[in-house]
Fold this sequence. Notes:
The structure holds two protein chains of two kinds. Chain A is mainly beta. In chain A, 0% of the residues lie in helices and 59% in strands.
Amino acid sequence: MTLITNYGVTDQFSLTAFFPVRYILNEKVLFRGQNQNQYAGGKYFRESYGLGDVILQARLQKNLLKEKLPVVFGIGAKLSNGEINATDRFGDRISDNLQVGTGTIDPVFSIYISNNYRQFLFSGGVFTRITNGENIYGYHYGNEIQTLVNIDYIESSLIYGGLQFSHLLTTRDYYEYGKVAQDRGGNSIFAAGKLGTRLTDKLDMEMTIQMPLHQNLNESQLTSPFTIQFGSLYRFEI
Amino acid sequence: MKLKFYILLSLYFIVSCSLYVDDEQPDIFFEYTDFDILELGGTYSDMIITADGHFIFLADYNNNRILKINTGNTMNVVGEITLGSHPGALDLNSDGSVIAVALEGESKVTILDVSGFEIINSFSISLMNVNDLAFVNDTTLVISSKTDPSCISLNLNSTAETSQSVLNGELAMDREHDILYVATSASIKKYNWDGMRFSQDSNISDPYGFSGDVHHFVYCNSNNTVFACISSIEEGISVRHVYSYNGADMTFAGKYLIKSPGLAVAVSMDGQRVFTAPTDADEMGVFVIEFDQETKLESNYYLSAGNLTDRGLILDPQSQFLYILVNIPGDDDSFEPYNDYSFDLQRIKL
């Protein structure tokens, strides 16, 4: 679950904060000798939960093409507040990619363009997260670039729907000061359908169903083939 | 001008991230492949393969039977014989026509005909808890017990049993030279056969230095070497190698580092390739590790589908396939009794 707050300082400038609350559970079957605390092997659980790394972003809107094409430039940082010391039941620290935090402060950039044409809203954007080095355990997350293209259809003020195509590229992680990690990174292209409603002037509800069109991941990775997301947006004045 | 700049910048981002290729590769010494597995279930105490490599025989310890496996394109069970309590060890005679089976749960040795896959004889013996046996020649067996301090020999023609001055342990026979090697709990012993009795050779191996549990013991005639998979039963001593000894003088011939005690070993007919089954998995899984006999260095890794077991590794005579007994932990994922440690047969193409 992610709580997103946005504060419009002016019509063209806003501040946004993302507060991800994460629960991660990993279950696997160990072979004999893979974990000295559970020498005979068998089922082994690892879990972590809590507030993940908060992202703070400043967004500046510029209207281009004679004020007809709004472009939103975002710049910000992903903080390193998330816990990176979760342990298993034996007290051993679990893998970095199962922690709710990453342990590094990383810059985040985005560009977002949108334009209305009759009842359609065309929009697109690029989002990047560039990892700023290793955390204190020597783990270096790969960079992430996401490209989005949206077509929204707004039937009335009550209901809207849309299609989204996105391309997600993540590069491999490194660990132990330079070793290339397995089962991390790759290319994915997703298609998503969106259905939303503006319940009141202040409250929107939205459901998104996403499925991969193409995936080229490094080695075998546990990824969801199909995701359903529910979101809500509430506007209020301070 | 500014507009063009922003549009070009946006296009640059979109296009560049689509074209970017992440070609960093981790160090991987193996590939994931689909496992070639014959699902059996059961706990197996020994396995042997015929000289032509067409059939494997498994001693099904808990179900008191011997299984005959066809190793054709698709492995399948082509026969089974229920023969007595807890078959513990198997051996083939020199021409591969009969199999001797030692029954650990009763004082008995059974002889099977390979081609007809039927019991052709059965012998009562004086030993309890038999753990191994070997053909000395086509008419004589040497048999070892877990609890009796010394071995016996059994003449299959006269049924005469003779107590031998041979310490108990795992047995490996050099039939060409009538030499018996025994891996005891303390060291490797060498005995010479005079047609009636074994006598200990003057060459004696150094003791291991700990009290050991022997999992597998193999003689390789092409380089006159024995290979022993041993673990320590003493606390605080961890064995991380498979040991080998020169048959001629019983000197130490090499240590093969596998980071945990060996459970089984197989050697190619030319003696150059040594395949070892470690007790422990590494981070990525369980691997059979191949060594070069000359350098004693690792040369290949073969991914196993599960945990390995004592004597659970054989190589076909043409060195084309490895056969291993694997216990896949995911199969044990229930609360049903007797569901643990059920092994299947995995084939690995070399």
